[in-house]
Amino acid sequence: MLESPSNTVQMLAAWRDGVEAAGWEFALFDTPCELIYRQDLGDEWKAMRVGSAVGLAEDVCWRFASTRQTTYQAFIGVPLWDASNRMMGHVALFFNRTLSDEEECRTMLEIVELFSLKVQSELNRMLLEQERERALQELKEANSRLRHESITDSLTGLYNRRYFAQRIKEVHTRFKRSAEAFTLILLDVDRFKSINDAYGHDAGDTVLCYLAKALRGNTRSKVELLFRTGGEEFAMLLPGSFTLDELTVINDRITRAVAQIVLPEEMAQVQLTVSIGASGPKAEDTDWNAVYVRADMAMYEAKKKRRKPGIDRSKPLIVNSIFSACYRSNSEACKLTPLV
């Protein structure tokens, strides 16, 4: 097989005296095989070409530098063509004797050509199969990339709103069918507009990326799904329902994650805080949007209450059937208490 555009040939298979030899590579230059590929043959060599094949009846061993140390007397070479009619390799036959006359040379050429046709057919089948497999793999990878891009938020690398809608619809359907509970947590960055106004939108994007990284590092992948659902709002989708104590553990985990965020030096004055709301499904819900509305209302109730003068921001604000809390990034972990 010719390693185009190189002048190196890779031997796929070789036999000597009926015994198969290991494959190897060699340079075409100054070998009988070179005559198969060259189009600028001198008059001496043109007479030895029969169509696209080459036949040398005698004296091969001293005609080429590569065969000087051999006992080769005759050579027959037949090209192999790919499906696009491009030369891709050749079949070569070396003899330790001369071919007695033109008739014998032509007969051997015909035999080698018949053999080469079978080799060529099998090689083309293999190449087409490889090309097909390569094309299928490339298609699979392209589809995978498109799938990833279609469900990923380009800024934060979290899942996007489109995928959020798909997944929450799926878990709500399972809840209606088999009472398989789930919990939705919404997070919203407080005073995000003021960050954009003071530092610019690029800085705002930086805050979102830092927050997304912190949240991703403190969630259980494939169990707790993270989404950026729009602007400065994030969502977590968790399987199962939770007691207040269990929600406190989740809240503490989020609190620690936000508290440990270190923004770039030029934004050192930013006090990053978030408001949180959560909800789970109810039997009377007609669709998942009801769950989302409750969590969203809880989140904004927490955000509204934390703005009131004199509010103790180190304590949670319980405003929904499950929980809602707001906190500062430098506060102690909030302790949740039942709604009364």
Keywords:
single chain, 340 residues, alpha+beta, Beta-Lactamase, Alpha-Beta Plaits, five-stranded antiparallel β-sheet, four-stranded antiparallel β-sheet, 9 helices, 13 strands
Explain the overall architecture.
The chain has 340 residues and is an alpha+beta fold. The protein has 2 domains: 8-146, Beta-Lactamase (2-Layer Sandwich); 161-328, Alpha-Beta Plaits, CATH 3.30.70.270. The protein has 9 helices and 13 strands.
Low-confidence stretches: 310-340
Sheet with the most strands? 5 strands, antiparallel
Can you identify the CATH class of the largest domain? Alpha Beta
Name of the CATH architecture of the largest domain: 2-Layer Sandwich
Oligomer classification: single chain
- End-to-end CA span: 82 Å
> How confident is the prediction overall: mean pLDDT?
81
Radius of gyration: 37 Å
Shape: elongated
Fourth-tier CATH superfamily name of the largest domain: Reverse transcriptase/Diguanylate cyclase domain
As a percent range, the share of strand residues is: 15-25%
Write down how many β-strands occur, each being a DSSP E stretch of 2 or more residues. 13
Structural class estimated from helices and strands: alpha+beta
* Discrete helix count: 9
Here the CATH topology of the largest domain equals Alpha-Beta Plaits
Order of helices and strands: EEEEHHEEHEEHHEHHEEHEHE
Helix content class? 40-55%
Total number of domains: 2
Strand order of the largest sheet: 10-11-9-12-13
